[in-house]
Amino acid sequence: MMRLPFRMIIALAGVAAVTAGCGGGSSSGAATSTTGQGVQVVRPPAVIDAPTKVADTAAGAVGYREVGAGSPILLIMGLGGSMDDWTPSFVATLATGHKVIMLDNAGVGQTAPLASPLSITGMANQTSALISTLQLGRVAVLGWSMGGMIAQALVVLHPAQVSKIVLAATQPGTGHAVPVPPAAAAAVASSNPAAVISVLFPESDTAAAQAYVAGITRYPDSYRASSTTIAAQGSAVEQWTAGKDQAGPRFGAVRLPLLVADGTLDELDPSANDRSLADSVPEAKLILYPGAGHAFLFQDMASFLPAVERFLR
Measured between alpha carbons, how far is residue 305 from residues 91, 168, 171, 238, 287 in Å? Predict the structure, then answer.
């Protein structure tokens, strides 16, 4: 298993801090410039400059960011992560054609914690409250890992708020999911960034891992969930995969366009779970990226984002 040493992460953060100042510009949408030949070039939004806003929702305060313009797509982060764990290039590419909304899950950043015990359903209801407060109408939703569980619960409990669903490297909540191997589960919940990175990318692709770290460390004052919140999220995930969350077993009744995707070398989510999710919804589309890991959406971004764009049309 790959272990990126702290000195590598610190070095990448130093490089990122230098390059981050080169972004500049407004974060409200894509900027354009014209070449000498009169060809218009679209520049992606400066994602790292997007301010964090706080919405006062029926489920408490929710921290979020908005970038770009167009049909809305909501990004839901996984266990332990914050909005700063979406790489700027990933968000900027989506934002060239969409209004991208990112949020922090309960108890992360400026988002209010929820009553204990934390559940996937509770986080989905809080996400729904943000959609209502921002008056987004029906949104496309992309959930990664635990965020994919929240996306499933969201569409089960609040189907009128969702237009299409993209589930990236996530598990069904039926009680029949292939469990996360204990060593991988411990690594992703670790306070050691190198341990977390080691289970997101396969050992064979250190370049992708380095690029990911370089991207997320461009955010000023980047942050993650606290150890207490991560532990609560872990318990919520366990309840979900055991089929004990009320929304999980009901996902098979969903009748909305669904795209399921993952890497074939995902240490946290065996691809059997992706097949199970895709098989549960009629006409769902499944894409498995050979040689990619849990963070396939960044490792194979050049292939995955065009596939997402085609799906959203």
Answer: 10, 12, 21, 29, 12
Distance, CA of 140 to CA of 85 (rounded, Å): 20
Report the alpha-carbon distance of residue 266 to residue 87 in Å, rounded. Answer: 19
* pLDDT tens by residue, 41-77: 345 458 999 999 999 999 999 999 999 999 999 999 9
Please state whether 243 falls in left (phi above 0), alpha (psi between -120 and 50) or beta: left
Q: CATH for 43-312, among 3.30.428.10, 3.90.960.10, 2.60.40.10, 3.40.50.1820?
A: 3.40.50.1820
Q: What predicted TM-score, i.e. pTM, was given to this entire model? A: 0.88
Q: Kindly report the CA angle at 97 between 96 and 99, in degrees rounded to 5? A: 95
Q: How far apart are CA 185 and CA 223, in angstroms?
A: 20
Instruction: Domain ranges for the chain, please list them.
Output: 43-312
Burial (CB < 10 A; 0-12, 13-18, 19+), residue 85, is: buried
Output phi, psi for 156, to 5 deg. -70, -45
pLDDT tens digits, 76-131: 999 999 999 999 999 999 999 999 999 999 999 999 999 999 999 999 999 999 99
When pLDDT is cut at 50, 70 and 90, the band that residue 249 belongs to is: very high
Residue with tokens 């894409």: 287
Distances (CA, A) of 58 to 61, 134, 147, 233: 8, 12, 20, 21
**Is the distance from CB of 174 to CB of 248 less than 8 angstroms?**
yes
CA distance 248 to 310: 27
